[in-house]
Amino acid sequence: MATAGKVIKCKAAVAWEPNKPLVIEEIEVAPPEANEIRIKVSHTFHLHHFRLSMQPQGFPTVLGHEGAGIVESVGPGVSEYQQGDKVIPLFISQCRQCHFCKSPRSNQCSSIFSWISRHDAMAPPTSRFTCKGKELLQFVGTSTFSEYTVVNEMAVAKIDPMAPLDKVCLLGCGICTGYGAAVNTAKVEPGSTCAVFGLGAVGMAAVMGCKAAGAKRIIGIDINPEKFEKAKVFGATDFVNPKDHDKPISQVLIEMTKWGVDFSLECVGNVSRSALESCVQGYGVSVIVGWTDLRDIAIRPNQLISGRTWKGSTFGGFKGRDAVPQMVKVYMDKKLMLDEFITHHMTLDQINDAIELMKQSKCSVCLLDMDFLLLRHICDKDRVLNTGSFTVNPCRIGVY
């Protein structure tokens, strides 16, 4: 391509400092270096990780860790990918060589341990982004809130060339996180009873995973009753609103099921003991799903001594480079729902509007069309077209 080996100027949503709106800026994206891939992002979306709580050391940054696009160029040493490939960037790499990658018990990769634990930045030590002469951090190594991004080849999944990018981009984080937490981490069993705490996009995906695993009863828990009808689409059989009860939600679930649920998945992001305590003693399994570092939590030792298991799950236990292409195939075989999660379509320059919708729990997945952003800029310049946001399937099913 004509841009290969050159610096590309493009639009990106830049977070200059904490707790401030993102700013659409023109940034420079350097060519990929050794073992790197430059991707033209076609679609991205926003669920949870706005990271308002990040320390100042984590700024300025380009956020976004869920998206899909097409390989624009590759750096030296890259052989698995080539220009034109459809890909999904991954926030958890898979080098396929380290102790963790070789183990079937984990989807972690030691290649990111040196920087992912730096909670003040959540970014690799080097970046291919600059703006106004200042280096921009690349959030968890992906930064999909940019028309172009550069990602290490260990953190890219090559997918079916026929896959629709505006749908399979959802597999970059949230949907795999919830679905895999049920199937891979909890290992939900046929005929079991499950409880999913929080019916945002990740929670809905967890419900879908429970159903796929054969659970006979799936109880959705959320304080927003408007989510309940949508949860039925993904397989929920029962619903509980904690606000309707004057007793702990764990006690409500134990009374509903006699002994407690076999599996519980905590998808709220504000972790408490409720999901664990709702599990049956002796063999119940509770999983904390996704990333949260809001506060410490404490439990009584007898909650675990009695036989319950408390586990955590990142990216649903999926090894991204291997598993995401498989999940794309499952979707294309019509055995996985993705379209049903998308409630809004916007463009990158409307990112702050999308964030507000999610703060107000008025959408699940707000898909950002990067190509449409380019069209808007061209047309606005010529005063031919000035479009606003448009909405499809306007149901309200919460936020990750």
Automatic annotation (TrEMBL):
The family database entries (SUPFAM superfamilies) matched by this protein are listed as: GroES-like, NAD(P)-binding Rossmann-fold domains
Keyword Magnesium annotated: no
One Gene Ontology cellular component? cytosol
- Reading the lineage from the top rank, the first entry is Eukaryota
- Family per UniProt? Belongs to the zinc-containing alcohol dehydrogenase family.
Q: What is this protein called?
A: Enoyl reductase (ER) domain-containing protein
Q: Which UniProt keywords apply?
A: Metal-binding, Oxidoreductase, Zinc
Keyword Zinc found? yes
> Which residue ranges does the record assign to the Alcohol dehydrogenase-like C-terminal domain?
201-329
Originating organism: Mola mola
Q: What's a Gene Ontology MF term here?
A: zinc ion binding
**Xref: InterPro entries:** ADH-like_C (IPR013149), ADH-like_N (IPR013154), ADH_Zn_CS (IPR002328), GroES-like_sf (IPR011032), NAD(P)-bd_dom_sf (IPR036291)
Needed co-factor(s): Zn(2+)
Could you tell me which PANTHER family the record lists for this protein? Answer: ALCOHOL DEHYDROGENASE, ALCOHOL DEHYDROGENASE 8A-RELATED
> Entry's Pfam families?
ADH_N, ADH_zinc_N
Q: Biological process (GO) annotations? A: formaldehyde catabolic process
Q: Where is the Alcohol dehydrogenase-like N-terminal domain?
A: 53-159
